[in-house]
Amino acid sequence: MTEPGRGEAPFGPPPEQAPPVLVPAGVGKAFGAVQQFALWNPKDLGYLAGYSAAALASGPITGAEGEKFKAGKLGEYTIGEDGEVILGAPFVFKADNIDEFDF
Known about the structure:
Order of helices and strands: EEHEHEEE
């Protein structure tokens, strides 16, 4: 299989041909599909990364442990050890919310 401009795709069918991962309750076990999975919400993760980078570039923070900054609608965050900023608990994707994400 090839992708336009990318050549051979080593990872399987494109998303529009991939089988659904989430199925209605009760059906998943028969087919081996998952009922839910958890990841950090990619929209919130990108939002936080943007605010973190902007605060670091514009001067309110230096990246030192314990510094605090505001990340818009996500609220206030504190820089942790080694300059890490933790988004928080992962988002649980289920059959009733998976269609809200287009990635």
